[in-house]
Amino acid sequence: MGRIFANWWVVSALIALLAIVVLAIGAPIVVPALGALWIRGAIVVAVLAVWGAVSLARVMNARAASDAIAASLAGDGADEEGKILAGRMTDALKSLRENAGGQRDYLYSRPWYVIIGPPGAGKTTALVNSGLRFPVSTDQFKGVGGTRNLDFLFSEQAVLVDTAGRYTSQDSDAAVDARGWSEFLGLLKANRPKQPINGVIVAIGVDELMRGDRATIDGHADAVRRRLAEVKKGLGVGIPIYVLLTKSDLIAGFVEYHDDLDVEGRRAVLGHTLPYADGPTASQRLVDAFDELARAISARQARRLSAEADAQRRALILGFPSQIGALRSRLVRFLERAFAGDEPVGVLRGFYLTSGMQEGTPLDRMMSGMADVYDQPRQKVAGAGRAYFLNRLLGDVMFPEAGLVQSNPAARAKRRTQLIAALGAIAVVTIIGAVLIILNARSLVAAATPVAAVSQESGSDT
């Protein structure tokens, strides 16, 4: 409800409606001379005209902001890589305009999400295989050997900014990576000062968590925390953050455990959304959240075992909940290190198991001897091209929460001032118009009174 009344269109329309009710219905009760139908009509037209003029001005400003963003994204690149990216953006924006049906503020009106994570985390794979509808083919956004800098994916619901893994880790060429990351944040702040982004998606591969030692996990968590702190400081916003545990198909038994799901089942959400809280997330809450997820996963085990005839697959299904349990301490350590502390870097909304593509050798921490028992080497998972647990996570969990971002205080104050000024202008013009109408009505009444008196006298004489 609070978000509804924070919307300028809702508030201004209600005030305009209230002004019409008061001036066109209430005022004639106090001043009977205003009861004439043409006077009431004039009041309604005056109020709507003022509201329409102010609304048109806001729309024009929004369109100007959209043009500024488009110009920044499609600007000429200084080097060959920049020129290639500029060409991609030009094609993307052209296609989006053609699909916007003439709506010029299409770009600014969509929420923006930035996805970060170490190199090889599967960020691009998750987005491209999410099942979202992209008006522009996603093939032209795929970097060679991974995203080299930034890729912009324009879906029908949101703008997704896929950042290079080196921007998160900054361990290849720290100076160059840091400068590129800083320039990207500056671009967002310059072109979307009111709400630079609506959320951050942190992608971390399950293989990194299950294979890595404490130092590796801590290193990833520290890098993520630094980038999130830079986002908060550079953009001046409090952001919701969603942690994607990518490559979940590398957990031994994942594919076999979920092989019975149809398309809708694979689009579901497999994770835990935390209660909204501005402060840091307590360690015990993370543990409880993970345990709840693990119980939900285990609840399907009996049904899957009864439906599976293959002995090796049954063994994998039997061991899958234990594999999930082995992830618990590692994930909690990562989340605690990245999001705990006295200075929260954002609002952790949840963590989710996802898989964009099935390939590679599954990691079996609990049943590493299974292959020996069956006298068979562990086989790689074939690239079946199925996406698990991505579609509704983005479309039903993240995108509807676009309003959770806490706007830049300065921009919020400026917007509040503009809203008050606009509503004040509507009120002032409406009052002036009402006063002029009242004075005009009184003049007409005064002029008509002698005529009526003369008519009555003439009638009496006859």
Categorize the overall geometry: elongated
Poorly predicted runs of 5 or more residues? 365-378
Q: Measured on Cα atoms, how large is the radius of gyration?
A: 30 Å
Structural class by helix and strand composition: alpha/beta
**Biggest sheet details:** 7 strands, mixed
Strand order in the sheet with the most strands: 2-3-1-4-5-7-6
Number of DSSP helices? 17
Amino-to-carboxy terminus distance: 69 Å
What oligomeric assembly is this protein in? single chain
State the helicity in percent bands.
Answer: 55-70%
- Content of β-strand: 5-15%
Order of helices and strands: HHHHEHEEHHEHHEHHEHHHEHHH
Number of strands: 7
Average pLDDT level: 78
Pfam families: IcmF-related_N
Protein name: Type VI secretion system membrane subunit TssM
Keywords: Membrane, Transmembrane, Transmembrane helix
InterPro entries: P-loop_NTPase, T6SS_TssM-like, TssM1-like, TssM1_N
Q: Could you please describe the fold and organization of this structure?
A:
The protein has a domain at 111-414. It contains 17 helices and seven strands. It has 462 residues and is of the alpha/beta class. Residues 365-378 have low confidence and may be disordered. It starts with a helix and ends with a helix. The longest helix has 53 residues, at 409-461. Helix 3 packs antiparallel against helix 17 and helix 9 (214-235) packs across helix 14. Strands 2-3-1-4-5-7-6 form a seven-stranded mixed β-sheet. A hairpin with a 4-residue loop joins strand 2 (150-154) and strand 3.
